[in-house]
Amino acid sequence: MLITRRRARTFAGAGLLVTAAMLATACQSSANASAPSGESSVSAKSEARAEAEAKSEAAAVGGKDTASGSSAKSSEAKGKGTQDGVGSGAETGSGGRGKVGQQCGANDISWSTRAESQAGGYILIIAKAKPGITCVLPAELPTVAFGSDGTEAGPAEQAVGQAITLRKGVTAYAGVNPKTTNENGGKELNSIIVGIGADDPNPVSLRVGTITVDKPIVTNWHTSPADAVPFDGTDQ
Predict the structure, then answer these.
(1) Is residue 136 within 8 Å of residue 165, measured between CB atoms?
(2) CB–CB of 223/111 below 8 Å?
(3) Residue 235: pLDDT above 70?
(4) What percent of the chain is predicted at pLDDT more than 90?
(5) Distance set, CA 191 to CA 154, 188, 206 (Å)
(6) Which residue, 174, 191, 99, is CA-closest to 140?
(7) Which of 3, 53, 104, 219 has the fewest CB atoms lying closer than 10 Å?
(8) DSSP string, the chain
(9) For residue range 138-159, what is the model confidence (pLDDT) as tens digits?
(10) What pLDDT is stored for residue 145 in this prediction?
(11) Which is nearest to 230 in space by CA: 94, 123, 113?
(12) 176 with 230: CB under 8 angstroms?
C-alpha cells in the first residue's frame, strides 16, 4: 500500500514537470514569434522615415532648380526685350531708332505756307499738330508735288534729317525751292501738294500764289525756319 502511494506521488510529480516544461516551451515560442514582429515594425518605421526625408530633400532641390530656371528665363526675356527695344520706334536719322508715338498723317497737322526771299526766293512750309494731337514727323523727306502730272521735289540736303515729335508748342518747317534752273521756262502753278511720305493717304493742297516750277527741291523737316532754307540744292 505504501508502495502504491509512492508511485502515485512519483507519477504526479512527473506530470507536473512535463506540464511545466510544455508551458516554458510555449512561452519561449511566443516570445520568439513576437520579436521579429517588433523588429519588422521598427524597420518599417525607419524605412518610412528615410523615404520621407529623401522626398523632402528632392523637393528642396527641385524647388531650387525651378527658381534657377525661372531666373534664367527671366534674364533671357529681359535680354530679348532689350534687343527688341533697339528695333522699335521711328528712325532718328543717325542710324538708331527712338521711342516715339504714332506717325503723323497730313490730316493730323495744321498747315500754312509763307513766301521767303532768301536764296533767290522759296516757299516755307509750316506744320503744327492739331489741338490734342501728338505725332511724329519721320526722318525722311517731305513729299511735295506740283501740278496734275505729279512732279515731285527732290532733296535739297544730302544728309537725312531728324524725326520730330509734333505737339503743343512744337512747329516743323520745310523749305521748297520750286525752280532751280537758270533757263527760262517751266510751268506756272499756284498750289503745292504736301504729304507725310509717299504713302500718305490724305495729302493736302496748299495755296502758294503763282510760282514757276522747274526741277524743284525741298529740305528735310526742321524745328527752326533758319535751317529750312533750300538754297540751290546742296548743303550750305
Answers:
(1) yes
(2) no
(3) no
(4) 44
(5) 17, 10, 5
(6) 174
(7) 3
(8) -HHHHHHHHHHHHHHHHHHHHHHHHHHHHHHHHHHHHHHHHHHHHHHHHHHHHHHHHHHHHHHHHHHHHHHHHHHHHHHHHHHHHHT-SEE-SSSSEE---PBP-GGGEEEEEEEE-GGG-EEEEEEEEPTT--EEE-SS--EEEETTTTEE-EES-SS----EEE-TT-EEEEEEESB--SSS--EEEEEEEEESSTT-SS-EEEEEEEEEEBS-EE---BSSGGG---TTSS--
(9) 999 999 999 887 899 999 998 8
(10) 95
(11) 123
(12) yes
Nearest residue to 233 (alpha-carbon basis) of 91, 139, 120: 120
Strand partners, 171: 128
Q: Which three cell numbers stand for residue 63?
A: 524647388
In degrees, to the nearest 5, what angle opens at C-alpha 128 toward C-alphas 216 and 112? 50
Q: What is the DSSP string of 155-199?
A: ES-SS----EEE-TT-EEEEEEESB--SSS--EEEEEEEEESSTT
Report the C-alpha gap between 16 and 10 in whole angstroms.
10
- How confident is the model over 88-142, as pLDDT tens digits? 334 444 444 444 469 999 999 999 999 999 988 999 999 999 999 999 999 999 9
- In the chain, the largest separation of any two C-alpha atoms, in whole Å, equals 177
d(CA 115, CA 152): 19
